[in-house]
Write a structure and sequence with these properties.
The chain is of the alpha+beta class. It folds into 3 domains: 13-64, no CATH class; 70-133; 184-247, no CATH class. Helix content is 65%, strand content 7%. The chain has 7 helices and 4 strands, in the order H-H-H-H-H-H-E-H-E-E-E. It starts with 12 loop residues before the first helix and ends with a strand. The model is unreliable at 1-14, 16-41, 54-60 and 173-182 (pLDDT under 50). One of its GO terms (biological process) is protein transport.
């Protein structure tokens, strides 16, 4: 049975080199090569003539596909395919990089927020523990401070009062040293000595300060011939004995 021949397009190797389309697998195809490839048909002069005409017509430049257009289309197709693959790969790599950086950034942000929240919670908890555990002690300390404040006030009041007492004692002591208010024994001895100087039976007058007389009148025996009088103008601790012979 005869093999049917499909209409073939013949591209010379020289033409392929001129078009610089080495990526295409182009082979020099001659009519004789086609015959050898497809085999020799049964002898039929009319059929052979038809085949040769078909092959010859297919080699007509007006029937050839524009190689440049094919190349451009292939280039665009390859570019689009490469762009798509590159985009997907870049997207995947970018996602992984972004994911890693996002995790690190999230860790830092989460750590910071967690630290702040934990610190605040720990501080509050610590304060509550201290207040609960040491509340009684704090109350006692507060009460003690209040007592100290009260003692301070009382001490200041007492100090002021003590100051008045001390001043009074100093004044009294100085008065005694200056004989402004002499000791009772000293007053008694002074009066007794002056009275003894008066001769017996001699009339005399003893002049003393009224307060000094109150001290010695019950402790000294005054003779009947000595008359006692008081004079407020007379300095305390002093006394005057008036006789016919004079004063002493």
């Amino acid at each position: 049975m005869r093999k049917s021949l499909r209409k073939k397009r013949v591209i010379k190797a020289e033409e392929a080199l001129e078009k610089n389309i080495g990526s295409f697998c182009l082979i020099d195809v001659e009519v004789e090569d086609l015959k050898n490839t497809l085999g020799t048909p049964e002898t039929n002069p009319e059929q052979d003539k038809t085949v040769e005409e078909s092959v010859t017509k297919s080699s007509d430049p007006t029937q050839m596909v524009n190689i440049e257009e094919l190349f451009e289309n292939a280039r665009k197709e390859g570019f689009n395919k490469g762009y798509k693959e590159g985009f997907e790969k870049g997207k995947s790599e970018g996602y992984q990089t972004g994911l890693k950086e996002g995790i690190e950034s999230g860790k830092k942000d989460g750590f910071k927020k967690g630290y702040e929240k934990g610190f605040k919670a720990g501080k509050e908890e610590g304060r509550n523990i201290v207040e609960t555990r040491y509340k009684g002690l704090l109350d006692r300390i507060q009460a003690g401070l209040q007592d100290l404040e009260k003692l301070k006030v009382d001490f200041e009041v007492g100090l002021n009062s003590l100051e008045d007492v001390v001043v009074g004692l100093v004044v009294e002591s100085m008065k005694k040293l200056l004989f402004v208010i002499p000791e009772e024994s000293l007053v008694r001895e002074t009066v007794k000595e002056l009275v003894n100087r008066v001769a017996e039976g001699q009339e005399a007058r003893l002049v003393v300060n009224p307060k000094d007389w109150d001290i010695v009148k019950d402790n000294i025996s005054v003779p009947s011939f000595v008359k006692v009088t008081t004079d407020v103008s007379l300095k305390r601790g002093s006394c005057i004995v008036e006789t016919e012979a004079g004063f002493f």
